[in-house]
Amino acid sequence: MIVLCRRCRPLTCSYGSWCLFAACIVLVTSVACGDDETDAIPDKLVVATRDVPPFSMKNEDGQWTGLTIDLLREIKVRMRGSDAAALELEFREMGLDEMLDALERGEIDLAAAALTVNAEREARVDFTHPYYSSGLGIAVGRQQLRTWDAVLAAIFSLTFLKLMLALFAALLASGVIVYLFERKRNPEQFGGRAAKGIAAGIWWAAVTMTTVGYGDKVPKTSAGRVVGFIWMFAGLFIIASFTAAVTSALTVNQLKSRINGPADLSRVRVATVTASTSDRYLADRHVIARTHSDVHSALQSLKAGDVDAVVYDAPVLRYEAHQRFAGEVHVLPMTFQRQDYAFALRENSPLREQINQIVLRRIENPEWDDVLAGYFGEDVE
């Protein structure tokens, strides 16, 4: 079938040679591609991370653990399979800005922490697919939730003390005037030593102003009764004004102490973490905030009463509030400004596609919900 005549043989041999040559090229190319894919995974990955519980945290032995770190170790196993032990993960603790700078300079291979994906960071580095989505949250001190704290704060405020002094001055003035008019003509009720008579006058002024009117002290002179008549109507005005002032002071104090959402942040003292997405969020909305190196120190300032609220990633705030600040800090139930967490890589990193596939397969697995529940409990979003 192959050789029909002598004229056909050269053509047939030439065709077979070309087929053999093409097959060799395909084989060599396949081997080369396979070698490149293997070489894309180095023997060591330099990983930047930081203390952001429960995503990344250092235990007592100095080992890094947490949701993000555990996922990275699983990625390592799936990338290398049975040879996973040959792939070393070298962790370096860095701040947020340091991580991005190190990636741009090529000093590290990836960053693994609660790193939020945003346009500004994407312009500098590459991100994998997100493995967790949440939002920003607001932590407040427990005193923000107690109405009695607001009441006590108002009672011991300078405004309230001024009101009390003004009221006592009015009672004293009225009591002294009645005493001066009544001490000789009505010694049974306002007589005796000056201190005793003035005290009786103050008592009469107080019961008259409050409309109680026990009747145990009654002016008998004409001048004393005129003073009593004027004091009755003056007392109504004083009581009304005093009640309004106290109510206003309590209301203002409660308004200042109550924080219900982002709209309330502009009128309270706020803390956040330096260079974080929450820091940028507050700056964009012209909210002045005190910045801290980490969320733990920010919450410490909240506990100490130096600030009224801490704005940061909601899952981190909830974990810290439950584990380290139980009973001292409360995280509001609402979240805002969506946050997607992902691994950050160098631009055009050959690791990106492999990590993306592993991350997607992992988070699509129903067991991922159990992993999240192990870290966040009922706070899983």
TrEMBL record:
Residues 44-379 form the Solute-binding protein family 3/N-terminal domain. Keywords: Glycoprotein, Ion channel, Ion transport, Membrane, Receptor, Signal, Transmembrane, Transmembrane helix, Transport. It holds the Pfam family SBP_bac_3. SMART domains: PBPb, PBPe. One of its GO terms (cellular component) is membrane. The chain crosses the membrane at residues 151-181, 193-214, 226-250. Residues 44-370 form the Ionotropic glutamate receptor C-terminal domain. GO terms for molecular function: ligand-gated monoatomic ion channel activity. It is a multi-pass membrane protein. Residues 1-34 form the signal peptide. It is found in: Membrane. PANTHER family: IONOTROPIC GLUTAMATE RECEPTOR. This is Putative ABC transporter extracellular-binding protein YckB. It comes from Maioricimonas rarisocia. The gene is yckB.
